[in-house]
Amino acid sequence: MTLRPSILLVLLVLLISSTCAAAYAPASKAQISDAKTSGLQTVGPLPLTYRDAQARLLQRSDAIEASDADVRSREAQENAVRTLRLPTVEFEGQMMRYQKTLYLPLGPLADVAQDYAISDPLQFQMERDSTRPIVTATVPLYSGGRIPAAQAAAEAQLGQSRAERQIVVDNALLQMTELYFGQQLLTRVRDVRRDVLAGLERHLADATILERGGFISRAQRLQVEVARDDAARELETAEANLASADTALSGTLRAPSGIDPATSLFVLLRPLEPLETYLQAAYRAHPQLERLQALEDQAEAGVTAQRAELLPTVYGFAQYNFDRRDTLLTDPDWSVGVGLRYTLFSGVDRSQNVRAAREKVAQAQAGLREAQSQIEIGVTRSWNDAEAARRRFQRTDSAIVAAEENLRVQMVGYQVQQTTSLDVIDAQLGVGRARIQRAQAAHDFVVALARLLHVSGRIEDMPDYIDQGERIAP
Q1: Strands 334-341 and 259-261
Q2: What's the rounded mean pLDDT across residues 363-385?
């Protein structure tokens, strides 16, 4: 019996399908067990929720670790100056060889001494070895303000270091947030571009059939082909942008195998808290304001320290010599007392140093006021951007419904020759554009919200807002 070519083709397709099915069939339990026992594992992107990504960043960021080291250094310095009022005890040991000459006037006995050829005055000279083990204790009684100034400066430096660490943390979290949800947006853009390309390829296949049947012209078919090629190029661009975003996020989170974000884009259905709430939070907890306040405190401590240069210092002291046999004649066995030190004249104009320190205070205060103004502007702008993006997102639902209905109508009309290929192409692109606009609006809201929380000093609260938001399905 002779088989027709069409039947042979069907049989060949069935044979190939069965072979492929056998090759790619799911592994049996025994095969899975063998794979586990052999230790084979598949390395792929690491799935992370936003909260997990935030924790991973705080644990693995080298910039944050460097800031932590600086804070620990400032803490040690602050601890070091806490005991400045305690006595300073020093031990000094010397071994020396010396010569000493003594002259003893004879006075009334000078005439008698001349009779015995003894010169006046008597001269004694000795040469010997000596050791001088001495302990000296000094305690400050009055420093003129130097000690409080040093302690206040160290405390302010510690506050500055902590604020700078928080700035590094907040900046890192903001950058990670933008990368995390930026990857989500680019993934959606790639998927939309892929769907548009698939739709245009189906449309091109239909147009090719209609052209062969003489229902449309070659020019109309070429229009679809050009649109298909443009969609293919846009898909390639979207894939390249996504690959770059993957690299940036993986590097930030120190994940060489890549990151698979498990938290999707979201939008809050309810309005944001009032603007005043975020402004008050910024005034209360923004690390930049804390840093500038610490700089002002350091400048105030500098004024106190420069004023202390105009005042005397008073100290108590005690000294004890452990070797009294070999001491010099001028060395006491022990001594206690009170000392005063005051600089009568110096080559440095100390009053001008006080003036310079006061100007540093004025500089710090002006910087603090400017920072408050800039933060207020940033909070207001970010709040408005977030609210605008939230409202814009709410209007995208109807746009997508209208675009999909328009595509359906245009495709039906094209089948009955009531619409053209350009109408179908525009409708197909319109659906993709509406879907991208929806994802872009959600992304704009997330970024604006993250910047609002960042400028308010609350970026670490981002997971709480995510829990309250509506997740945007892929």
Answers
A1: unpaired
A2: 95
Q: Which helix (H) or strand (E) holds 133?
A: strand 122-142
Burial zone of 313 (CB within 10 Å; 0-12 exposed, 13-18 middle, 19+ buried):
middle
Q: Is 372 exposed, middle or buried (0-12, 13-18, 19+ CB in 10 A)?
A: middle
| Closest by Cα among 358, 441, 359 to 399 | 441
pLDDT digits (tens, 9 = 90+) for 301-344: 999 999 999 999 999 999 998 877 766 667 788 899 999 999 88
Model confidence pLDDT, tens digit, residues 145-194: 999 999 999 999 999 999 999 999 999 999 999 999 999 999 999 999 99
Residues 6+ apart with CB under 8 A from 372: 283, 289
Taking alpha carbons only, the member of 190, 191, 228 closest to residue 206 is: 228
Contact 432, 196 (CB under 8 A): yes
Question: What is the rounded distance in angstroms from the CA atom of residue 29 to the CA atom of residue 417?
Answer: 55
> Is 261 strand, coil or helix?
strand
Residue 126 CA to residue 299 CA, distance in Å, equals 59
DSSP letter, residue 144: T
Question: What is the 8-class DSSP label of residue 262?
Answer: -
Query: Per residue in 131-140, is it b (16+ CB within 10 Å) or e — as a string?
Result: ebebeeeeeb
Which tokens belong to 292?
A: 């500038």
Q: At what angle do helices 421-455 and 146-212 cross, to 10 degrees?
A: 170
Read off the amino acid at residue 286: H
The one-letter amino acid code at 114 reads: Q
List Cβ neighbours of 371 (8 Å cut-off, separation of 6 or more).
288, 289, 292
Backbone angles phi, psi at 151, to 5 degrees: -70, -40
Q: Which of 70, 64, 72, 74 is nearest to 158 (CA)?
A: 74
Mean of the pLDDT values across residues 397-401? 84
DSSP-assigned states of every residue in 325-336: SS--TT--SEEE
Q: Whole-angstrom Cα distance, residue 55 to residue 57? A: 5
CA distances (Å), 139 to each of 86, 91, 107, 136, 442, in order? 6, 15, 46, 10, 66
Query: How far apart (Å, rounded) are the C-alpha atoms in residues 220 and 198?
Result: 18
Q: Which two tokens stand for residue 422?
A: 């350009």
Q: What is the C-alpha R_g of the chain?
A: 42
Q: What are residue 93's DSSP bridge partners?
A: 133
